[in-house]
Amino acid sequence: MLDVVNLQCTRGDRRLFSGIDFTVEEGELLHLYGHNGSGKTTLLRTLCGLVAPSQGEVRWKGEAIRNQRDEFAAELLYLGHKNGLKDDLTGIENLLVACRMAGLKTKQDQAWDVLERMGLRGHEDLPARVLSQGQQKRVALARLLLSQAPLWILDEPFVGLDVAAVALLENVIAGHVANGGLVVLTTHQEVALTSGKVKKLRLGWKEDGHV
Amino acid sequence: MLDVVNLQCTRGDRRLFSGIDFTVEEGELLHLYGHNGSGKTTLLRTLCGLVAPSQGEVRWKGEAIRNQRDEFAAELLYLGHKNGLKDDLTGIENLLVACRMAGLKTKQDQAWDVLERMGLRGHEDLPARVLSQGQQKRVALARLLLSQAPLWILDEPFVGLDVAAVALLENVIAGHVANGGLVVLTTHQEVALTSGKVKKLRLGWKEDGHV
Amino acid sequence: MFDAFRVIIARDLLLAMRRRSDVLTTLFFFVIVVSLFPLGIGPELDTLRLIAPGVFWVAALLASMLALEKLFFVDYQDGALEQMLLAPQPLSILVLGKVFAHWLVTGVPLVLLSPLLGLQYDLSGDTILTMMITLLLGTPALSLIGAIGAALTLGLRGGGVLVSLLVLPLYIPVLIFGAGAVEAEVSGLGGAGHLSMLGAILLLSILAAPLATAAALRISAE
Amino acid sequence: MFDAFRVIIARDLLLAMRRRSDVLTTLFFFVIVVSLFPLGIGPELDTLRLIAPGVFWVAALLASMLALEKLFFVDYQDGALEQMLLAPQPLSILVLGKVFAHWLVTGVPLVLLSPLLGLQYDLSGDTILTMMITLLLGTPALSLIGAIGAALTLGLRGGGVLVSLLVLPLYIPVLIFGAGAVEAEVSGLGGAGHLSMLGAILLLSILAAPLATAAALRISAE
Amino acid sequence: MSGRIFNIYRFSSPATFYPLAGKIARIAAWIALLLLAVGLYMSFFVAPTDYKQGEGYRIIFIHVPAAWMSMFIYLVMAFWAGIGLVFNTRLSSMMAQALAPTGAIMTFIALWTGAFWGKPMWGAWWVWDARLTSELILFFLYIGFIALQGAIDDNRRADRAGAVLLLVGVVNIPIIYFSVKWWNTLHQGASVSIKNGSSMSTIMLQAMLVMTFAFWAYSIAVSLYRVRSIILEREKDARWVSELPEVGR
Amino acid sequence: MKALSEFFYMGGYALYVWGSFGVTALLMIVEPIMVHQRRKSVLQRISRLVRIKSEQKS
Ligand code: HEM
Ligand SMILES: Nc1ncnc2c1ncn2[C@@H]1O[C@H](COP(=O)(O)OP(=O)(O)OP(=O)(O)O)[C@@H](O)[C@H]1O
Ligand SMILES: Nc1ncnc2c1ncn2[C@@H]1O[C@H](COP(=O)(O)OP(=O)(O)OP(=O)(O)O)[C@@H](O)[C@H]1O
Ligand SMILES: [Mg+2]
Ligand SMILES: [Mg+2]
């Protein structure tokens, strides 16, 4: 489904990576890893089409994503380092807006349910600004529970989450993969993904473990 | 050295915690934990004197910190969720400015050495803006290697670091504790601190593991 | 497509409601500029009446330029812009929605308040009416044109000046026709010609600006 | 203590150098405001000469007010302000340093450029000289006073309006004495009285403003 | 540089364009020097004193060519930027970038000489007249473009952002030109009409034309020389750059 | 001699005529110099790059 062909990215004067090829099929998870600054975030943003590669291309269902921007966007869910929450909207409002922008017809009570499942009961009505770091992340991740997109691209989704939330998120991801979804994620933490096929890809030329 | 007496903090309508008492002595590490939103960050900021508690007080060497603000500040190093890096300064410049503001007379080449130890060789001269998430964190943490403050207060210092950097940071913290320093930190990751006395404190009323 | 348009307008208006005082920023700035002049220049009504159209229009232009800086910046910083770029709708529609909401919040209050301020300058009823019409036609054009500049400079060092520098030359025709229409009205020449030019500029910018802005956003967010 | 003062000035100047164009923001804004008026009002030199002192001073005031918003905001957002609050030096010294650097970067260029703009308005040499002196005394006072407002509204929603609202009443005396001095000079009355009032305002604000600002920062950062 | 059709693709590669640009630049530089010498001689010694403006009118021989070049260069830049945006050719964006400083300097010269002309003729350094204003705005457009390019570190982003700006700006130029004109005719202001009575004698016209071509050649020479540096800066990792004779030392 | 000083006097317009021509000449001399310096510095940087590369290879 998602094919990456001979991808190369340059930032400033530095070539971050080149000649990257891989494929992610339905029911597969790709775990990107590598040391800090190896280019994981850049690669994920390239997969989404936010960064134009300096060489090579990304294909979705066999066609280059830059030729089918809207179609691809409809099948993609990307969560980056930044949460994309509006500080002044409450958790509920943030979730609803994000879903509707993605073209979903999410109902008010669905959103309440989902936030409760994410452990935000009693905090749904606070503006995102006063939520703790981890609670903000949870609001952002709640979109996963409502999404119908087959392809999830997640940049360090576990950062700032407590133990229980990490377990929940692992479940959600495993469920998506089991249902035939595709996931590409990065994380420095060890993550147990019980079901589905897990691929790994290491970025960076230096030895892993290099400080 | 650091005494906390009957501390209580309220945010908005919610009482985050109350009746907190503890002491951290030289050569001790306090590991704060608790679920997302339990008030860890708030507690740390109260310890620094950035947030005024609604009840109780924080004492340093037996005296309330709000009566000896500058003296306490000279013995304290706080690193919060936000890195405090200026986007447009390079790593080196950021480090030097931060140290000098803290009253240290750090030399240029000391700073270069330290950044190299933090694994930023070849990136010292880039503006912080273009560094990756983890590299920015490393620049911020480099201050630890130069600091002469006995009390370190660190809010989730391991977030975004790769495996090697986590190991390095654990070493640095352990070294500080072994030399008679005091450390208060929060983290969700399991962290092995080999030497020194480790105390733990759990915040939040709900069961840990509650999502 | 219209869904996305509606959602984004609703979101931005809600946000503006939440930061009620932000809505007032532009308006307040407009009021300050217009009211400070009598303080700086002195109270002679003849001089004031003479410079009124210029002062009003310059104030409107400055107010609009200042409001611009934040048009996309907050979305850019908290990552909401990335999500907009990845939304399955044409980006220019979303841009149009954002600009429209922005205008509702910053432009319309200014138009509505201008009669009150006109009294300070002892303007006649007709003049005030013409002034309102020019502002009504001109301010959306300013917002649309300004959006291009805001998108181009997103996340750049010193975005502030750059926006002004880039946008200013594009604003000047609007200023000239806007102030010109009012002056023509005052001097009895009739401002119809100027007004239709303003209308033409507005139309052109509705058609072209969202496309240019969308292109600029894609470039800047990279 | 002077160490910290020096470090913070050096840091802020370095930052300003990095964002070279940011240095220009205020300057450019000033130039724009001053140059737009002839476009809005029309090209008669007599009218222009009449309104020049007012236009220049209003422009300087607006430029200073706008630059303020960012005085502490960036530091607040990236966490550098927390580090400043925790530095082992009196906060008011740091504040004074920051404001001084800010004035060097935003105020001084404006003073230096005013003669050139004066030519556009066909002002005489004496008038231009008086204008420069008033600006030299007035702009640091504006920066110092403005810093209080900026600190008080830090991180509040809609900081923008609030700053303007809080700061404006304090700015108005500076505006009146500043523009007044120039006008007195033009009309041959001599602006000495106005100038000494400006000097007094400046002294007072050097003494009181940093303390007030430091207190405000502690409150806002909580 | 337009060349024959089948040559366009070949010369749109920086490696082939680089030496060609060097050659053209050298020729243009010599032409510029020659024409400047002739033009200056004509404008000071051949052209007669104007009966109305005395010797002061001689400013026209640089003012008008500079004013024309300032507008023409902007159009050329917009053309290159458009090509760069549509066909994604790096070279055309580099051309746009290389032309900008020269265009800004021409605009500045037109403004400066105009001001130095205006003082004796109109009694004021500056009036808010139609042409003056639109020239000032053109100067802002140039500075804006240069500032935008300077503020962006990434070359590709700078190219594309600059192109969007240039294209929007070029739409604006006729609007400015006519709007400013219209605005001013309503105010019979203090300004003297630029079209002064004295119809130009043929010899003056000839001198002016020679100067115009001199400025033209100068602009070509300088901008091509500059584009060579830009090419090198951007392609510094390419093989052909490291094999250039001038790099060896 | 007199002709020369008369020439420079420009019928009373000396400041304006020479002010214009002078600044124009200055700009047209400075611009090529700056372009040339830009070229020199680029070439220097590239030679350094090439040297570093060849050292790395050997
Ligand atoms: C700062 C002041 C001035 C500026 C910015 C300026 C700008 C320009 C521009 C842009 C043009 C070309 C317009 C066109 O070809 O349509 C031009 C042409 C010309 N200017 Fe100026 N000008 C200034 C002052 C003056 C003054 C003071 C005079 C003489 C009293 C003057 C006389 C001319 C003449 C004779 C032409 C040629 C007109 C033609 O052939 O169409 N300019 N100027
Ligand atoms: N303009 C530039 N000049 C030089 N290097 C740059 C520039 N922009 C980005 N980089 C480099 O590109 C890399 C960006 O990497 P990226 O953010 O993709 O890393 P990452 O793998 O996500 O790291 P982390 O684990 O820290 O999140 C960094 O090494 C950074 O230094
Ligand atoms: N104005 C307010 N009204 C209500 N609740 C508030 C307000 N401000 C903050 N809070 C609550 O206070 C808590 C802040 O907690 P804090 O940031 O200290 O958490 P934390 O333990 O650091 O969490 P994390 O692990 O996610 O970083 C959150 O639960 C938040 O909802
Ligand atoms: Mg990353
Ligand atoms: Mg926290």
Tally of DSSP helical segments of chain C: 9
How many strand units of chain F? 0
Number of helices of chain F: 2
Distance between the termini of chain C: 24 Å
Strand content of chain C: under 5%
Oligomer: heterohexamer
Largest sheet of chain C, in brief, is: none
Q: What is the N-to-C order of secondary-structure elements of chain F (H for helix, E for strand)?
A: HH
Largest interface, Cβ cutoff 8 Å: C-D, 42 and 44 residues
Distance between the termini of chain F: 69 Å
Radius of gyration of chain F, in Å, reads 23 Å
How would you describe what is shown here?
The complex is a heterohexamer, with 2 copies of chain A (211 residues), 2 copies of chain C (222 residues), 1 copy of chain E (249 residues) and 1 copy of chain F (58 residues). Chain A is built from 6 helices and 9 strands. With 211 residues, chain A is an alpha/beta fold. A 5-stranded parallel β-sheet of chain A has the order 6-7-8-3-9, sandwiched between helices. In chain A, helix 6 (163-178) links the parallel strand 7 (151-155) and strand 8. Residues 207-211 of chain A have low confidence and may be disordered. In chain E, 49% of the residues are buried. In chain E, helix 3 packs antiparallel against helix 4. Chain E is an all-alpha fold. Chain E has helices at residues 5-11, 14-46, 60-87, 90-122, 130-151, 155-186, 202-234, 239-242. Chain E is built from 8 helices and no strands. Chain F has one domain. The radius of gyration of chain F is 23 Å and the shape is rod-shaped. The chains are: A alpha/beta (211), C mainly alpha (222), E mainly alpha (249), F mainly alpha (58). Chains C and D meet through helix 2, helix 3 and helix 8 of C and helix 2, helix 3 and helix 8 of D. One magnesium ion is lined by residues 40-41, 155 of chain B.
What descriptors fit this protein?
heterohexamer; E: 249 residues; mainly alpha; disordered N terminus; F: 58 residues; 2 helices; 90% helix; rod-shaped; binds protoporphyrin IX containing FE; binds adenosine-5'-triphosphate; binds magnesium ion
Summarize the structure.
With about 210 residues, chain A is an alpha/beta fold. Chain A has helices at about 40-50, 70-75, 90-100, 110-115, 135-145, 165-180; strands at about 1-10, 15-25, 30-35, 55-60, 65, 75-80, 150-155, 180-185, 195-200. Chain A folds into 2 domains: about 1-75 and about 150-210, 3-Layer(aba) Sandwich (Rossmann fold); about 85-150, no CATH class.
What topology emerges from the helices and strands here?
The complex is a heterohexamer, with two copies of chain A (211 residues), two copies of chain C (222 residues), one copy of chain E (249 residues) and one copy of chain F (58 residues).
Chain C: H1 2-18, H2 20-41, H3 45-68, H4 73-78, H5 80-85, H6 91-120, H7 125-152, H8 159-186, H9 192-220
Helix pairs in contact in C: 1-2, 1-6, 2-3, 2-6, 3-6, 3-7, 3-8, 6-7, 6-9, 7-8, 7-9, 8-9
Chain E: H1 5-11, H2 14-46, H3 60-87, H4 90-122, H5 130-151, H6 155-186, H7 202-234, H8 239-242
Chain F: H1 2-9, H2 14-57
The structure holds protoporphyrin IX containing FE, adenosine-5'-triphosphate (2 copies) and magnesium ion (2 copies).
Residues 40-41, 155 of chain A line the site of one magnesium ion.
